[in-house]
UniProtKB/TrEMBL annotation:
Name of protein: AMP-dependent ligase
Lineage: Bacteria, Bacillati, Actinomycetota, Actinomycetes, Mycobacteriales
One GO BP: fatty acid metabolic process
PANTHER family: ACYL-COA SYNTHETASE, MEDIUM-CHAIN ACYL-COA LIGASE ACSF2, MITOCHONDRIAL
Keyword vocabulary terms for this entry: Ligase
Amino acid sequence: MNISDFLLGAGDPTAPALTDAGHTHSYAQLRHAAGVLAAELAALGLPPGARVAVVGANSLFWVAGYLAVMKLNLVAVPITDKSTPEDVQRNVRLVECSAVLIDRRLSRRFAGALDGLAVLTDDALGSAREPHWPAASTDVNADAVLMFTSGTTNVPKAVRITHANIRANTESIITYLGLRPSDRVLVILPFYYCYGASLLHTHLRLGAHVVLCNSFVYPETAIDLLDTEQCTVFAGVPSSFQLLLRATTFTSRPLPSLRIIQQAGGKLPPVMIDELIAAQPSAEVFVMYGQTEATARLSYLPPHLLREKRGSVGRGIPGVELAVLDEEMRAVPPGLRGEIYAVGDNISPGYFRDPEGSAAKFTSHGLRTGDLAEVDQDGYIFIVDRRDDFIKSWGYRVSSQEVEAAVLRMEQLVSAAVVGVPDDEAGEAVTLFVTTRPGSDVATEDILAHCRRELAKHMVPRSVHIIDAMPLNANGKIAKTSLRKHDGSKVLSV
């Protein structure tokens, strides 16, 4: 089955599908919009498998365009609207896009990057063409989407996601979260990010209601929407929850409709998981782990185990097998470290036209995640750090996540990020960046004193920088590559 038919199959025509900037669109209206854009795309005469970029913020146009592309057996290429024109040009050329769906307000900004492409803007939603929704067959193993990795440590790669991948991951997530057709999800994550896309896929599949919030720069706006729209589901990355828990009214404002909170996209320190549970006690908190190469999700920790398995990302989701293997490809015993490998129908077949990169990542033992972890006697996985984020200092391998978790036990802090900076003596110096609660007068010496109490000597940061805000990539993750290049220009106190 074509994945667009799969995703739109359950929605009642009169039921709300999408609320965008205060306007609610029914499933009938979403299907009509997708059909109109499919008609415009079909008029371009593109061959099956041709790549079509989708550029813009979350909106009716974005969702309808995304569904229309996949319905025509073309390949959707979501691209962040936060990119520079140079980055957009690089990405569309990398995957050889033939056309682009783009918000009209962005088309002038990116005009030079889109030379040679057929361009359709959101004006096409007003087309006089009859909606087009052909009954053509689809190879479920054909590419549906090329999803770019976040590029937190390397140049982004284009991950091939098939129709079958999306279906497998969507069904699995719906099952373990216990999502319902009556759910209303507040989406602050962009759909060009695999985590955000998974929220769209799962709720459309059920005929549920997707409420868009594109202004998380002001997180109180999201809390207002959770309240006024009576949202039942909310999802975020660590930076989202750090702001909500320590810089907003989220911890003191009752949200009785909220029943599911999803946390993924990086490790939220255990102390903040505890705060999240306490903040909204009527909601179940699901800690999850995933990668773009896995369509979205790989593991989850059931809410009732959050305290018993504190700090764990759980075990494989339905349909996924996870193993923590040593360098000899043997399962590690409890307490020893290895790398996480994953097998399942949601795993991508590889990177677009990158056989060397694909061979290194997609191995005979499964998807090589690059995450080092330990496993306990019950098979629950505890991630220690990204392989690339370990800091080699004075002959030790320092886990940045372990240092960050210790630092964030200081309630005056909102977020923390640790990176290694080249140092002639240590090899790499442990360097800490933090943001503080509004009005806090905490000093760097206070933070260092806390670190000396909480951490082994070799893990204590060499320097601490209090900055206005963490640099985030387009997916809301802390961009450690930017911190490694930090020149001190935005340091508030040192």
